[in-house]
Design a protein that fits this description.
elongated, 6 helices, 4-stranded antiparallel beta sheet, 5-stranded antiparallel beta sheet, alpha+beta, single chain, 261 residues, 15 strands, Mannose-Binding Protein A, Chain A, Alpha-Beta Plaits
């Protein structure tokens, strides 16, 4: 490569290849053990491009590239230098793709970070600030809308009681359903209609603003390390943020889901 690339106005991305199908959770976890940034999946005509980054320091990107190349199927990974402005704009283009990581304007259909615990891709409305150690990482790139029959392999986990009500987070390992990583655990992200269907099939429903407020006041989300980087769906297409803020959002946004009964 000759000279060592300079940082400054550039960003560095590890190009980890083209994907013909969603990246399995096991692969995502394996990669996150070796990187300090996020994994992004950028939909393209011939498949989805895998990107890791962005990095502002070439030496860090180079060191993590060596670790990534030791993983099976990523031996051909390499680093690409991009001018900062175009770098972020090209990777995070408008129109939701992750159809998942962005509340109001989901960054979803354009790039889907496969997150672990870094900052979420561009979420128009930010949720509660999180410590630098926890940033979500979006993953895979398909829209997920469970069918209305059965529970779509969703199970309830992280159940907590607040008064006489039970709150729980639905989850499935179905590779077609969006997920991201936070607290080193995978969490699903769904659009509004899918969220309603999943809760209903599990004998529950989406929370109201009052119930959300009671859940926040109980502090149980922090105690049990629930995901907080992205807002949650509430009844009436409401985006419920862990700051207590409530916004009306488009149903296509991919958000966290909490069910109640």
């Amino acid at each position: 490569m000759g000279k060592k690339p300079k940082s400054g106005d550039s960003l560095f991305w590890i190009q980890c290849g083209m994907l013909s199908k969603p990246m399995p959770l096991s692969t995502v976890k394996a990669i996150y053990q070796h990187i300090s940034t996020d994994i992004w999946v950028k939909p393209e005509p011939k498949g989805s491009r895998c990107l890791i980054g962005p990095y502002t320091d070439f030496s860090v990107a180079s060191k993590e590239l060596k670790k990534v190349k030791q993983l099976s199927t990523f031996e051909q990974a390499f680093i690409r230098q991009v001018v900062k402005k175009s770098a972020t704009q090209s990777v995070m283009k408008s129109k939701p793709t992750t159809t998942a990581v962005t509340p109001a304007t989901t960054v979803a259909n354009s790039v889907a970070p496969v997150t672990k615990s870094v900052s979420p891709p561009k979420v128009v409305e930010k949720s509660a600030p999180v410590t630098a150690a926890t940033k979500p990482k979006p993953a895979a790139t398909l829209n997920s809308v469970p069918k209305s029959t059965g529970n779509g392999d969703f199970v309830l986990r992280q159940q907590v009681k607040v008064g006489s009500q039970t709150f729980a987070l639905p989850f499935t390992e179905n590779p077609k359903v969006q997920f991201y990583m936070e607290h080193d655990v995978a969490w699903n992200r769904l659009d509004y209609d899918a969220a309603q269907i999943v809760c209903r099939n599990l004998g529950m429903r989406l929370v109201t603003e009052q119930e959300w407020s009671a859940l926040l006041s109980s502090k149980q989300m922090q105690q049990h390390q629930w995901p907080v980087q992205l807002p949650y769906w509430g009844e009436g297409r409401k985006g419920l943020f862990t700051t207590g803020k409530v916004n009306s959002l488009k149903g296509a946004s991919l958000l966290n889901v909490v069910c109640v009964k």
